[in-house]
Specification:
- The protein is an alpha/beta fold.
- The chain folds into 2 domains: about 220 residues, NAD(P)-binding Rossmann-like Domain (Rossmann fold, 3-Layer(aba) Sandwich), CATH 3.40.50.720; about 40 residues, no CATH class.
- Helices cover about 50% and strands about 15% of the residues.
- The protein is built from 10 helices and 7 strands.
- Helix 1 crosses helix 8 and helix 4 runs parallel beside helix 6.
Length: about 270
């Protein structure tokens, strides 16, 4: 989608941080913005700030962990704008960092309810209506560098949600019709309210991040990336996987005999 002028862009978790930075960036390109999150005061403040910048912006209060609230959000956007062209599936939370052996189970359920199931609800509900709409559209789920590697000690619960989002995005990409782009936004360390003020000061500025990723979203990229050094950690993981296969399951003639993707392809042909 090369041009966002007069397009409708919905951003969950859009009142602060990366979501708000993207709202400003899409708005600067002429898009109509709808932001959503549970905190009414932050929504009102952010829409006022966007309006001061000349952005056509509105809000709908929504807790993405509740699929009925997500349906209400979808109803609101289609009733008000008649269409949705871009969904930025950005809402997410943190829980205290504890190792797997110590994290209370309720904290694990809490973070999955928003970070994973919240994105699943939005992708499912908006995705179905985008298919019915029948026009070029985009769904971008917001993952993390933790979708690919561990970067924060004891943040295993958060990392697990972001790995799950990677899997959902890859599957959704294959399921959607060609006129709907699906991709994963992969932030590294961005200085937002998710961190303490001291820690946030060390991260990439959210507006800088938005400027880096907007051209990639426009191009319909599968992976939308930013922090250059992350490739070193990703390559380290890939090398470990590659070495394991080279050592214990090396390629051989006819080794696709048990390859599920190959077998499914043959059945369909």
């Amino acid at each position: 989608m090369k041009d966002f002028k007069d397009k409708t862009v919905v951003i969950t978790g859009g009142a602060t941080g990366i979501g708000f930075a993207l709202a400003k960036a899409f708005g600067a390109d002429g898009a109509r913005i709808v932001i959503a999150e549970p905190r009414l005061n932050r929504l009102e403040q952010s829409v006022a700030a966007l309006s001061d910048l000349g952005v056509d912006a509105s809000y709908c209060q929504c807790d993405v962990a509740d699929p009925e609230r997500v349906r209400t959000l979808a109803d609101y956007v289609w009733n008000e704008n008649g269409r949705v062209d871009v969904l930025i599936n950005n809402a997410g939370i943190k829980v205290p960092n504890h190792p797997v052996t110590d994290l209370p189970l309720e904290e694990l359920h809490k973070i999955f309810s928003v970070n994973f199931f919240g994105q699943w609800h939005a992708a499912s509900i908006f995705g179905k209506r985008m298919i019915e709409q029948g026009t070029p559209a985009s769904i971008y789920n917001v993952g993390s560098e933790l979708s690919f590697f561990s970067s924060v000690p004891n943040a295993t619960a958060y990392m697990a949600t972001k790995h799950a989002i990677l899997g959902m995005t890859e599957g959704l990409r294959e399921e959607m019709p060609e006129f709907i782009d699906v991709g994963l936004i992969v932030p590294g360390f961005v200085g937002t309210e998710m961190h303490t003020a001291e820690a946030a000061a060390m991260g990439m500025n959210a507006d800088q991040f938005a400027a880096l990723v907007m051209p990639q979203i426009s191009a319909g990229e599968r992976f939308v990336v930013s922090h250059a050094f992350n490739i070193e950690h990703i390559n380290a993981r890939f090398d470990a996987i590659s070495n394991a296969y080279s050592s214990y399951a090396p390629r051989y003639e006819g080794d696709d005999a048990y390859d599920v993707k190959t077998l499914i392809g043959r059945q369909r042909s």
